[in-house]
Amino acid sequence: MPEPETYPMPPWLAPGQPWPPKDHAERLREIRDWRDLFSGEHSRVYQEHYKRLQDVRESETREPVTLLDFLARLAAARGTYEQEINLPQALSLLWADLLAGQPPKFRAGATVDGPDPGDEESNAIERLTRDLVGEIHEAVIEQSLAGDGVLVVTWRDGRGARVVAYPADQWIPWSATGDPNEPTAHVLFRETSAGGRTMIAVEVHFRGLVRYRRFEVGGGQLVRELEPELPAGVQPDQQLQGLTEFLVQPFPNIASAKGSTGLSDYRAIDTLVSEMDVRASQWGRLFDRYTAPTMYGPDSVLERDPATGQWVYKTAPDGRYIPVGPDDKAPGYLTWDAQLESQLQVWDRLLDIWYTVTGTTPAAFSLFREGGAPSGTALRLRLARPLQVAGRKRERLEPALRRALLAAQQLDVTLGSQKYRPTWPVVDWPDGLPHDPQQAAQTEATRKQAGLTTTQRALMRLDGLSEAEAEQEAKAIAAEGAGSTAPPTERPSVTLPAAEI
């Protein structure tokens, strides 16, 4: 393995350099905006769009006449008219649920050095993937909102290696040659504060080497380098023998061209989400005014309040009766046609655009306007487009996941006491649809009859059995089948004595 001096450091990791790096500052800022959309903090991201909701009355200097007027101004000042329809979160959760809602099955594939895997290799994959589904779910959400999912292999004494999801806005890829498809290193960083100072702890991941650094940040740049804070036994330049893969494995979302980072799903729906938020907020104000209209009538129903000097309605003590003289016109409510039907049509058109841009359908969110739940085949046809999009995301996730699991095994063998041979894991992905036992059984029976699968694999998919459990069950089924098809044994002939004949 090369000496640490042969691994070049990113030039922007040095005192006096801007932080964040110029080439990534806009991407990191944008991801933080997308994260606010996911968490429902739309008002900060869309504060310019929400200015369309400002009421002319907010600029009035007169005192509120009634309690209703006062409460309306208070509500407007607090921004309660700003309705935040969290469609971005629903979109990201949809992709994560389609990919990891039903846990994928992992098994040991071919070993790196060639021979078939044994029990120790299978046990290693089972141990490393025991709690991996939750991390995959988080990483797919990150891929959707940030444009990149990031898997990181970590090591903890007593726990061994583990694959975890990592925030994409704390990851920067770097290539010494400038080729984004051939990264030299992956930089992970974490910001901390102490004593009024801001520091960043940095991990620079090469293949077979991790460099730990720490810097003080101020004025938008790295001020000075500090001693890194490391666990016992870890060196600032930690060499890791036997690793052929990065401990950091990113997987991008869709991109217009090949590059080191992908595009967020939120970029295409940014203006659409803001329009739907503002539109829903306008409805709230419209409905408030429609259900509490202004009264009109003759001035004889008004009287001056001696305490405030304001004109108020003449009412009975219970506030429910306004006296009207014989020659007075009865007061009424000023109402108007709010065109609610056309407003709903606009919303339906916006939803149609939403489904088109995001590659989703109403059925993807369990909206069946026809009533009743469709069959498994009908549901699959309705979800053809979402399943295609989820499939493309899975195509980018699976190679990174397999490399991360290989690196975790290599780390397990290098730093731990394990003696097994690292393998390339195999991932069997479910389709993400609700499980239909009858249809699944029919599908597996057809595939088995056509010779396209084995009983063992069919059992793993149908009953969620492990490889060892399915193998044992398949042997039991084969033995039972052999017993039922065996020819009946002939009964021994008996010769009776002559006296009994």
Note down, in words, how this protein is organized:
- Helices cover 40% and strands 18% of the residues.
- The chain is α+β, with helices and mostly antiparallel strands.
- The protein has a domain at 438-480.
- Strands 4, 5, 6, 7, 8 and 9 form a six-stranded antiparallel sheet that branches. Strands 3-2-10 form a three-stranded antiparallel sheet. It has a two-stranded antiparallel sheet with strand order 1-15.
- Helix 4 packs across helix 7 (265-291) and helix 7 (265-291) packs antiparallel against helix 8.
Keywords:
501 residues, alpha+beta, 6-stranded antiparallel sheet, 3-stranded antiparallel sheet, 13 helices
What's a quick, concise take on this entry?
By secondary structure, this protein is α+β, with helices and mostly antiparallel strands. The protein is built from 13 helices and 15 strands. The protein has a domain at 438-480.
N-to-C CA distance: 95 Å
Strand residue percentage: 15-25%
What would you call the shape?
Answer: flat
Low-confidence stretches: 56-60
**How would you characterize the largest beta sheet?**
6 strands, antiparallel
Query: Number of helical segments?
Result: 13
Order of helices and strands: HHHHEHHEEEEEEEEEHEEEEHHHEHHH
Radius of gyration: 34 Å
- Quick one: how many beta strands? 15
Q: How does the helix and strand content classify structurally?
A: alpha+beta
- Helix fraction by DSSP (H/I, runs of at least 4): 25-40%
| Mean pLDDT over the residues | 83
